Amino acid sequence: MTRVLVVEDEPQIVRALVINLKARRYEVDAAADGASALELAAARHPDVVVLDLGLPDMDGVEVIKGLRGWTRVPILVLSARHSSDEKVEALDAGADDYVTKPFGMDELLARLRAAVRRAEPAAGSGEGEVIVETDGFTVDLAAKKAVREGRDVRLTPTEWHLLEVLVRNRGKLVSQKQLLQEVWGPSYGTETNYLRVYMAQLRRKLEADPSRPRHFITEPGMGYRFER
């Protein structure tokens, strides 16, 4: 069973999430503040975290950073904050998706399922058993691993999925809409700030000079391209 950690201080939202998740056979833990969330995550090892940013003891972004220090677990943010800057801050800290309050339960559950799918190992296939080398790093599609200067690069499931789509289409322009739908799901297509944040993260982790990328190329207004 998939284990979900709900981090939320509004009892009515917690109750609604717990009821709906358990009805769909998820195991659920709940925390009302950031410190409890970090303790529960370490003790229970959830498969996905649903996290409110407005917690009583610390900002949810700090919780994301605390989790990202040791785990790649998918993090789905809930927040009443609607500004683009705040969404980018959460994504940049390591969140995988962002849902604004008030939200529909069906939409939230669909996004949660998509986050869990991104974290699952892909079924192996002959065409997937490929190693792509550049002058600065190597991508092993079969092992789902990137290596730079002899060391494994720590990538979240969402970062890996984005990298994988680009590498499998190396040399080709991949449109913003295609990337969003392949990585986040078919209901996505306009959340271009997600791509901007995650491409910056990939460049920071893999490019020799992230400000002048050689491998992850932006085609303004159209999409992105991976070049060896």
UniProtKB/TrEMBL annotation:
The keyword Phosphoprotein applies. This is DNA-binding response regulator. Keywords: DNA-binding, Phosphoprotein. Residues 3-116 form the Response regulatory domain. Residues 129-228 bind DNA. It comes from Streptomyces spororaveus. Residues 129-228 form the OmpR/PhoB-type domain. It comes from the Bacteria. One of its GO terms (molecular function) is DNA binding. Transmembrane segments: none annotated. The modification 4-aspartylphosphate is found at D52.
